[in-house]
From TrEMBL:
It comes from Triplophysa tibetana. Residues 112-122 have a biased composition (Polar residues). This is Uncharacterized protein. Residues 112-139 are annotated as: Disordered. InterPro entries: Endo/exonu/phosph_ase_sf.
Length: 168
């Protein structure tokens, strides 16, 4: 199963025209989630921005002039069971679950895609330190996602390693 993510530095989403334009731009990528940094959101923005996005949103608020991160659910078919938002508006931690069937279908699709890929000169990304495998529930996969560009690459590498280990 792969999770597709786009991450953008919004440099403020207070302006309604800019926010609508960036929301449309983010939807055009057809990703599972869209991360915005520097949203400059405050608590009173949540309901209106969710209505504009027309799907689930999670926010860690900064101020009207700085910080704030925003995660928008786009095409993800699973559930977000828990989340934690940094009170300073610097990150979100999310526990995302998808069904076992969706996970297996994603792995099968990836296997077929890799089997048809004739370019074998690419080496896989370097592994990052990760915890030892723990027993997994039979019907869910949990993924930790952070709305911070600093950890985005590390998250992508962890997802790659997790996918590879599940295929083995």
């Amino acid at each position: 199963m792969s999770i597709s993510i786009i991450s953008l530095n919004a440099r403020g989403l207070r302006d309604i025209t800019k926010r609508k334009a960036l929301f449309l731009y983010a939807k055009s990528f057809k990703t599972d989630f869209c991360f915005f940094q520097e949203s400059h959101s405050v608590a009173s923005d949540a309901a209106f921005w969710k209505n504009q996005w027309n799907n689930d949103v999670w926010m860690a608020h900064g101020s009207e002039r700085s910080a704030g991160v925003l995660t928008l659910k786009n095409l993800f078919a699973g559930d977000v069971l828990h989340y934690f938002s940094d009170p300073n508006g610097h990150f979100l931690l999310m526990d995302k679950h998808c069904s076992r069937d969706a996970l297996l279908a994603g792995l099968k699709l990836e296997e077929q895609t890799q089997g048809s890929n004739t370019n074998t000169s690419k080496s896989p990304p370097a592994a990052v330190s990760s915890p030892p495998p723990a027993p997994r529930p039979q019907n869910h996969l949990s993924v930790l996602a952070l709305s911070s560009m600093e950890v985005f690459t590390r998250l992508a590498k962890c997802l790659y390693e997790l996918t590879r280990s599940l295929q083995a």
